[in-house]
Amino acid sequence: MPLCLIRHTRVAATAGLCYGQFDVPLADTFAEEARAVREALTRRYATNLPPIWSSPSLRCRSLAETLGAPFRLDPRLRELNFGAWEGRTWVELDSPEARHWGDNWQTAAPSQGESLPELLQRLRNFLAEIDSRDALLITHAGPIRALHHLLLGEALETAFRRPVGYGELLCL
Predict the structure, then answer these.
(1) Distances from the Cα of 75 to the Cα of 2, 35, 102, 127, 158, angstroms
(2) Neighbours of 101 (CB within 10 A)
(3) All structural domains of the chain
(4) Helix residue spans in 46-155 (DSSP H)
(5) CB 138 within 8 A of CB 66
(6) Whole-prediction pTM value?
(7) Are 135 and 3 in contact (CB under 8 A)?
(8) Distance from C-alpha of 104 to C-alpha of 43, rounded to nearest angstrom
(9) What is the pLDDT of residues 8-26, one digit of tens each?
């Protein structure tokens, strides 16, 4: 079976908020969206779910808890760490430093945060420890895009332009 990825459900965050690893509350639509995820998993797997790993972020862990199956938390599935920028709006962050990061997102790191190469390395380390041919990962848009790059060989520009919907099930 393929490696399947699910992005967490919607969050109740202010529009334009940089929240990477910052825990934000779940949206009011959580129960409905979690039910849709469970239905998609039932269509794909019936009752035979593969091993499940989840980011420990509230928005992922809460979804994993609704699946009614054992799961493991792994911090390597967290979103990119935006460091000092977490919890601030992108408008507040408009500065030469933020523009430098935006122009050099493939190599630069946000202030006190992590770079894309660091995110890619933690995902490589994670994949090396699991049987990635048969697993379900509940994670974030950044790691999902990074996994498209790592596992499918997509160019970073292509992978990071890829839309990833909330609660979307993607199998590689």
Answers:
(1) 22, 25, 25, 13, 25
(2) 20
(3) 3-171 (3.40.50.1240)
(4) 58-65, 96-103, 116-129, 141-152
(5) no
(6) 0.96
(7) yes
(8) 41
(9) 999 999 899 999 999 999 9
